[in-house]
Amino acid sequence: KIYVLISDLSEHTNNISINQKVSIYFSLKELNKTKSNNPRLTINGLIKKHVFNKNDPEFLDLLGSYQKIEKGSKMWGMFSDFNFYSLNPQRALYIEGFGKAYQKDYN
User: Fold this and answer.
1) Which of 13, 40, 97, 103 is at 20 to 30 A from 56, Cα to Cα?
2) What is the pLDDT confidence band of residue 103, given thresholds at 50, 70 and 90?
3) With pLDDT > 70 as the criterion, what percentage of the chain qualifies?
4) Confidence (pLDDT) at 27
5) How far, CA to CA in Å, does 30 sit from each of 4, 22, 41, 60?
6) How many CB atoms lie within 10 A of CB 79?
7) CA 84, CA 63: separation in Å to the nearest integer?
């Protein structure tokens, strides 16, 4: 599972309430001038909202972990409109470079 902490006020979160199928795109440092030769990863799956009390130990544990990658989340993660969502991957596509693609299905 991949957890994200996002605001319920954002447009993408409104879209999630309509369609739970999402993609997350990761790119590595671009080493090549030709963009299609740079490595990247796309993960597709279903996303689910978790409703926690902000004092719930599970919420605080997730927030503590999230702070390691996003320091500001310690503050805004406590705002009432921010919630954790989990992505259950169904498919991953890793592109190493032009003509080098690898797919993994999780179903």
Assistant:
1) 13
2) very high
3) 100
4) 87
5) 24, 24, 13, 35
6) 12
7) 9
Whether 97 has a pLDDT exceeding 90, the answer reads: no
Separation in Å, CA 10 to CA 5, 30, 82, 92, 100: 12, 29, 10, 25, 35
Find the helix or strand (DSSP H, E) in which 41 lies: strand 40-50
Token digits of residue 31:
């080493």
Render pLDDT for 37-46 as a digit per residue (tens, 0 to 9). 789 999 999 9
Q: Which residues contact 82 (CB under 8 A, 6 or more apart)?
A: 5, 6, 7, 8, 76
Sorted by sequence, the CB contacts under 8 Å of residue 52 that are 6+ apart come out as: 58, 59, 62, 83, 84
Q: 52 — phi, psi (to 5°)?
A: -120, 150
Other residues' Cβ atoms within 10 Å of the Cβ of residue 107:
5
